[in-house]
Design a protein that fits this description.
The complex is a heterodimer of chains A (504) and B (295). Chain A is of the alpha+beta class and 504 residues long. Chain A has a single domain, classed as Cytochrome-c3 Hydrogenase, chain B (Orthogonal Bundle). In chain A, 38% of the residues lie in helices and 17% in strands. Chain A is built from 18 helices and 14 strands. Chain A is globular, with a radius of gyration of 22 Å. Chain B is of the alpha/beta class and 295 residues long. Chain B has 2 domains: 3-172, NADH:ubiquinone oxidoreductase-like, 20kDa subunit (Rossmann fold, 3-Layer(aba) Sandwich); 177-295, Cytochrome-c3 Hydrogenase, Chain A, domain 2, CATH 4.10.480. Chain B contains 10 helices and 11 strands. In chain B, strand 7 (116-117) and strand 8 (120-121) form a beta hairpin. In chain B, helix 2 packs across helix 3. Chain B is elongated and about 70 Å long. The model of chain B has no long low-confidence stretch (mean pLDDT 92). Classes of the chains: A alpha+beta (504), B alpha/beta (295). At the A-B interface, strand 1, helix 1, helix 3, helix 5 and strand 5 of A face helix 1, helix 2 and strand 3 of B.
């Protein structure tokens, strides 16, 4: 390290959990980064020996913001073991609740956690700062208050389908536990429609159709200048202030993307997608698109506080025992390092957009590349790809009310299976083994494990560690730029912290 | 995150009407790291008053009592909780993990609650702990705690209203009724018309492991997200407000002897219950037996 280089440890708030990032900086820019999940919860160990269905109750409670997504992954793993495909209306009602969780999370994270820093005193010389304060100040800003009030309404949809948000367990092997009443489904439809109207008015400033016509960077500039409604919308403000702050030039990362795919299409539906899922599975490394293969996932513990296994292991064979050794031996995080076919990949809305070949985001990659701003734009506008299908599926559920909502007997035989889905913040997978009617092994890889992993045995940095390198750091006491880079990945450290299986 | 769902009143209105400053919140605060450290020092030393300390999540003591499974700047986070609790007028444990240890209480993280480990008084702060107000830790149990509870308890404290607690230091206003009360399947329970398979109309207590009659909670009184509850949606109550949550037995199953659950509704004697349920089943009307009545 040259004598001018300095180290700063940044404890992060507004990331849903326990994250400390150590960055080394020199001459006003970050030269290296180490991201540490500081909490070990041992969740999966607690599940060993429990009832076969208990993952449906335990895993949603890993996380207050991805609760429905954990339930989906757990239920899909049990579907796989039982060898059952849920009936169409169960697929729809699972999807709708998950999508409700996503469309609230995308907006809450963007405004309450990412854009909240627009009101940071570090920006007080910027021309838009006064407006940013009026909009995003914690508990007082106009956008802050409006987002809290409106986003909680969409969660009523989850409650009418599953009983409550967060932490329901209404998805069960082969389907769902109970069909909502016709009246509740109609109320859900009303709520989705009003949420869409609010989202179009406040977040986009235009119709979803108008937004989806924005298919290039040039078209984005036209959209931004088109009228004051669009310019003053949350997306408009994100773009204008984000560009002024240079967020389009930081946080590039290594531009390798993973999506597990999510939201199975019912057999008979009017919703349209390029695959049998609304969100496609895939991998893109640089510009090369590949077919996703779950067998290529492995987890490395070379820099994590676990007893060392024999290299990187697939989650069905994971060897993990916590071993708190402080800085000894280069370990610095409770997060393991998942790798796809040996590569670091990032996951989340930008990855989904790239893998779905959405032109605007492909144009960004072909031009300036990924950035904190592109990532956040992909998140804040993802509801544009979900809200219409939510409506379609609700209408279909209402039209077919009374159809079966479960296949099989709701039980699970011994066996091994995995359930993959997309959380709001990216790829989530559960790998489960049932023996003698009990859970014998439960392994979870979260989106934040993909994005916030430490180095692997090749010394290769995790996704956001890499994205931090080169980021300016004007004031080490208030490293707001690094915050934008990290938060553009929507970190969820509560669940990133790896939990382990006990060997018997 | 449950808290943001509160309706009566919503969070921004609540903060306004309480006239309080939210000094720090892990998901919502926008203080820079340096200012956050200064704030923490000022609170620990008492230089800045701390009216209410709300702790969410279990106190982690593992491995081997060191607390290093949950560190902050290389130091166990539990030490921060102890230092702040000494200065606070009121200390609130939000959720079952902070109240009683929850999931990790039997695990390698050696989790405990602030003033209880499961049903055992003690915990991190000790059985005799009193905050500066003279009140012990207020346990707002639940996984998650129902979204309306925290706001309403804060309003009660701000109004100097007496907050009556049960034996596990949970406010009676919110935990003094069973989850069963207000369940729309009550008639099916009353006449012992049971749900055996998912998707049926029927009571979830006899086969599906419902804890509704066994634990206190406001789920079916206040409802979730203003709309529903798990039992109304065909999902059994898992008993998440109990100091012993999660119970060791599998969820979605009821352990029973001769068709009568081993765990009976709060305070009920087995002999009386067996007679009562036998008579009730015989008296069940056709509309319930044929599952015509909606839930």
């Amino acid at each position: 390290m040259s004598p001018t280089r300095k180290i700063v440890d940044i404890p992060f708030n507004r990331v849903e959990g326990d994250l400390e990032v150590r960055v080394e900086h020199d001459d006003g820019a970050i030269t290296d980064a180490w991201s540490a999940g500081t909490l070990y919860r041992g969740f999966e160990n607690l599940m060993i020996g429990r009832g076969a269905l208990d993952g449906l109750v335990m895993t949603p409670r890993i996380c207050g913001i991805c609760s429905t997504t954990h339930l989906m992954a757990a239920a899909r793993a049990l579907d796989a073991i039982a060898g059952v495909t849920p009936p169409d209306n169960a697929i729809r009602l699972r999807n709708i609740a998950l999508m409700a969780e996503h469309v609230q999370s995308d907006v809450r994270q963007s405004v309450l956690m990412f854009m909240a820093d627009f009101a940071n005193p570090a920006h007080q010389r910027h021309s838009l700062f006064e407006q940013a304060q009026q909009r995003y100040t914690t508990m007082g800003g106009s956008s802050f208050i409006d987002v809290i009030r409106e986003t909680k309404k969409i969660l009523e949809v989850v409650a009418m389908i599953g009983g409550q948000w967060p932490h329901s367990s209404y998805m069960v092997p082969g389907g769902i536990a109970f069909e909502p009443s016709q009246a509740h489904l109609l109320q859900c439809l009303q709520i989705v429609r009003s949420y869409r109207q609010w989202y179009e008015r406040r977040i986009l400033g235009c119709s979803i159709e108008r937004w989806l016509a924005v298919d290039s960077r040039a078209a984005l500039d036209v959209w931004l200048d088109e009228n004051s409604t669009q310019r003053e919308s949350e997306v408009g403000f994100l773009l204008r202030f984000g560009r002024e702050l240079g967020l389009d030039a930081i946080g590039r990362g290594n531009e390798a993307f993973l999506s597990y795919g999510s939201l199975d299409l019912p057999a008979d539906t009017d919703a349209v997608a390029s695959t049998r899922q609304l969100v496609a599975a895939g991998v893109v490394r640089r510009t090369t698109a590949e077919t996703f293969d779950a067998a290529k996932i492995a987890e490395d513990v070379s820099h994590a506080w676990y007893k060392k296994a024999l290299g990187a292991l697939h989650p069905f064979n994971g060897e993990t025992q916590p071993y708190a050794t402080g800085r000894e031996g280069g370990a610095y995080s409770w997060i393991k390092a998942p790798r796809y076919d040996g590569s670091v990949v990032e996951t989340g809305p930008l990855a989904e957009a790239v893998i779905d070949r959405r032109p605007l985001f492909l144009d960004f990659l072909a031009g300036p590349g990924a950035s904190a701003l592109t990532r956040q734009l992909a998140r804040l506008t993802r509801p544009t790809t979900l809200l219409a299908a939510m409506e379609t599926w609700l209408v279909e559920c209402i039209a077919t009310h009374g159809a079966t909502i479960i296949a099989g007997d709701g039980q699970v035989p011994d066996g091994q299976g995995f359930g993959l889905t997309e959380a709001a913040r990216g790829a989530l997978g559960h790998w489960v083994s049932i023996e003698n009617g009990k859970i014998a092994r439960y392994q979870i890889i979260t989106p934040t494990a993909w994005n916030g992993s430490p180095r692997d045995e090749g010394g290769v940095r995790g996704a956001w560690e890499e994205a931090l390198v080169g980021t300016p750091i004007a004031d080490p006491d208030n490293p707001v730029e690094a915050g934008y880079v990290i938060r553009s990945f929507d970190p969820c450290l509560v669940c990133a912290v790896h939990t382990v299986k006990r060997n018997h | 995150m449950s808290l943001l769902g509160t309706e009566a009143p919503d969070v921004p209105t609540l903060m306004q009407s309480l006239d309080v400053d939210l000094l720090w919140h892990p998901s919502l605060s926008s203080l820079s790291p340096a200012k956050q450290e200064t704030l923490l020092d000022d609170l620990k030393s008492g230089a800045k008053p701390l009216d209410v300390l709300v702790v969410e999540g279990a106190v982690v003591r593992g491995p081997a009592g060191t607390g290093m499974f949950d560190a902050r700047g290389g130091q166990p986070r539990k030490d921060v909780a102890v230092a702040l609790a000494k200065q606070a007028r009121f200390v609130i444990a939000l959720g079952t993990c902070a109240s009683f240890g929850g999931f990790g209480a039997d695990g390698e993280i050696e989790a405990t609650g602030l003033q209880f480990t499961k049903s055992q008084k003690g915990g991190l702060l000790g059985a005799d702990f009193q905050a500066k107000s003279g009140l012990p830790v207020l346990n707002l149990a639940g996984c998650p705690c129902h979204h309306d509870v925290l706001g309403n308890v804060l309003l009660a404290l701000a109004a100097n209203a007496k907050v009556e607690l049960d034996e596990f230091q949970r406010p009676l206003d919110w935990y003094g009724m069973t989850v069963h009360q207000g369940c729309t399947r009550n008639e099916y329970h009353e006449y012992r018309v049971e749900e055996e398979d998912f998707g049926q109309k029927g009571c979830l207590f006899f086969h599906k492991g419902c804890h509704g009659p066994l634990v206190g909670g406001t789920c079916n009184k206040t409802l979730w997200n203003q709309r529903s509850s798990k039992t109304r949606a065909g999902v059994p109550c898992f008993g998440c407000t109990s100091p012993e949550f999660p119970a060791a037995d599998p969820f979605f199953e009821t352990r029973n002897i001769e068709g009568i659950p081993i765990a009976l509704p709060m305070g009920v004697s087995r002999a009386h219950y067996m007679v009562y349920k036998g008579m009730a089943a015989a008296a069940a009307p056709e509309r319930l037996k044929k599952r015509i009545t909606e839930v």
